[in-house]
Amino acid sequence: MLGRFIKQSWLVLVTALVFGLLVAIVDGALQETIERRAREKVYSKLKVLFGKNSIPEEIRGKETDKKPLYYVMKDDSQALMGYAFEATGSGFADKIVLLIGVDAKFEKVRGIDVLKTSETPGFGDKMKDESFKGQFTDSQAPAAGNKLAVIKAGSPAQLQILSITGATITSEAVVKIVNDAVIAMREVIKK
Amino acid sequence: MASEEKNKLNAKHKSEAMAYFVHGLWEENAIFRQLLGMCPVLAVTTQLQPALTMGAATIFVLVCSNVVVSLMRNLLQSHLRILMFTLTIAAFVTIADLLLQAYLPAMSEKLGPYVPLIIVNCVIIGRAEACGSRKPLVTSFFDALGMGIGYTFGLCVLATVREILADGMIWGIAVMPDGFVNWNVMKLPAGAFLTLGILLGLNNHFFGKK
């Protein structure tokens, strides 16, 4: 029995092992470069959110954490501009990763940017467009009793975000990510 | 004599390899003749740069997997061969994806989910079945190269048309006069289908079998 099994499958097992090893080696060799690219991307988006003269400072939860918990944003005169942090949540298709910037008092959201998204092109993917993303710029920061909400039509008031036509789920996902992250990070940073 | 026979065999292999290579470029062009691998053809050809990147990635995977399959061809069990093809292709696509993320991150982001989808590109598994699993190494290598270049050529033709009409640019450089109004339909799948259909029609008209 075992002999027949081995005879049939030895090639599959051997090649699976060899390919697994090959992929692991390539991954190990390239991980550093890939992580560096990701950091560069975050830093360039921080400059967009806080201005070219802003200086980010990485704050980690633990010394050994790979990624910072949040960034303290200061301008070139060392004055505190605000904070920035990544936030992840489930979108319609896959995870959505946002970069959220808030002001120093956590009263206003400076803006959001998109780090990772796999939403449907033409629909959820429009969350990257200024017409949706821009609604968060200078909006009131959500608090526990006062969250951002999605409206499907009409003119959004304070704390309201107009959803993308045909992409309600993605719009609600983004708003939920911003709500949860801002409320959670307010507690973490204020302490 | 043994060496004379060997020379003849080598010559036969070489000319066979060249024949496969040339066929892949045009006569059996993956896109215009065989209509394989259509998904990326429609999805990544909105601009020239991502189309070329996708073509390069496909060539890389095609060549590597055809070579490996050809090396394994005498060991393959017929009922497990598709599994082996897929395993090989998946490994090389993963490597290609990692290379893109590390060295061409902007393109990697633009191509998004279509890079992993190269695994199911019918051109690659089709060549593994038709050529890689039957022919010696050199023939398989040149077949993959020819098919890959033909595929990339098709992608680039489509992408050039779409980018010119949709953005007025090629490779991000403006080529259309100022008064040109962008044909937004070319950015959408509808535009892709239209362009592909017209190109296929023109191809059949001018080069089709009489």
Would you kindly provide a written description of the structure presented here, covering whatever features stand out?
The complex is a heterodimer of chains A (191) and B (210). Chain A is α+β, with helices and mostly antiparallel strands and 191 residues long. Chain A has one domain (38-190). Helices cover 40% and strands 25% of the residues of chain A. Chain A has 3 helices and 8 strands. Chain A has helices at 2-50, 130-133, 168-190, and strands spanning 55-59, 70-74, 80-90, 95-103, 108-116, 139-140, 149-151, 160-162. In chain A, the strands form 2 sheets. A 6-stranded antiparallel β-sheet of chain A has the order 1-2-3-4-5-6. In chain A, strands 7-8 form a two-stranded parallel sheet. In chain A, a hairpin with a 5-residue loop joins strand 2 and strand 3 (80-90). Chain A is globular, with a radius of gyration of 21 Å. The termini of chain A are far apart. Chain B is an all-alpha fold and 210 residues long. Chain B has a domain at 21-160. Chain B is built from 8 helices and 2 strands, in the order αααααααββα. Chain B has helices at residues 2-25, 38-43, 48-72, 81-103, 105-111, 122-132, 137-167, 189-207, and strands at 169-170, 173-174. Chain B has a two-stranded antiparallel sheet with strand order 1-2. In chain B, strand 1 and strand 2 (173-174) form a beta hairpin. Chain B is globular and about 75 Å long. Chain B starts with a helix and ends with a helix. At the A-B interface, helix 1 of A face helix 4 of B.
List the helices and strands and how they pair.
The complex is a heterodimer of chains A (191) and B (210).
Chain A: H1 2-50, E1 55-59, E2 70-74, E3 80-90, E4 95-103, E5 108-116, H2 130-133, E6 139-140, E7 149-151, E8 160-162, H3 168-190
Parallel strand pairs in A: 7-8
Antiparallel strand pairs in A: 1-2, 2-3, 3-4, 4-5, 5-6
Chain B: H1 2-25, H2 38-43, H3 48-72, H4 81-103, H5 105-111, H6 122-132, H7 137-167, E1 169-170, E2 173-174, H8 189-207
Antiparallel strand pairs in B: 1-2
Helix pairs in contact in B: 1-7, 3-4, 3-6, 3-7, 4-5, 4-6, 6-7
